[in-house]
Design goal:
Helix content: 40-55%
Number of strands: 3
Shape: rod-shaped
Largest sheet: 3 strands, antiparallel
Number of helices: 4
Radius of gyration: 29 Å
Strand content: 5-15%
Order of helices and strands: HHHEEEH
Length: about 150
């Protein structure tokens, strides 16, 4: 009798192929549900960083206007926030240390764009998104000062 008991316990010691297949299928279904949600997060983080950068630039442009009674021209660009412009109209009350320490670049490695007068307001600060081309959807969509207000 003891030999059959030992034989039964030896037979039940591992997993069957069917049990392993069930576990693999369950893990695959979970991966199909979870992975797309996790993969989209980096694009959302880049867009959030771009919106935060644009908000900081907009604040600096508004401070420039408070001191100099006008926005920097498109030709002067955002560089007018870091170094005093020498082109006309020259700012009479430009802040000694500037309005920003340095100009940020967008999360996709491109400089932020500036347009004055803007299409959406007095001025526009924007990024072309991941594709660095005007327009697009998803990660390629333009992100601008008009969308952060």
């Amino acid at each position: 009798m003891p030999s059959t008991n030992a034989q039964d316990s030896h037979r039940d010691a591992g997993f069957s192929l069917l049990e392993l297949m069930v576990v693999v299928v369950i893990l695959s279904v979970l991966a199909l549900v979870i992975v797309p949600r996790v993969i989209d997060r980096p694009d959302q983080a880049r867009a959030a960083r771009a919106q935060a950068d644009i908000a900081a630039i907009v604040s600096a442009v508004n401070l420039y206007r408070l001191d100099n009674f006008r926005y920097p021209t498109t030709e002067q660009g955002l560089e007018a926030l870091v170094t005093q412009p020498s082109s006309d109209p020259a700012p009479a009350n430009w802040a000694t240390n500037g309005y920003m320490d340095r100009l940020p670049i967008d999360p996709w490695g491109q400089p932020y764009q500036y347009l004055s007068p803007g299409v959406h307001g007095d001025f526009d600060v924007f990024s072309y998104g991941a594709n660095a081309v005007s327009g697009g959807t998803g990660a390629d969509a333009d992100i601008g000062s008009w969308s952060t207000q």
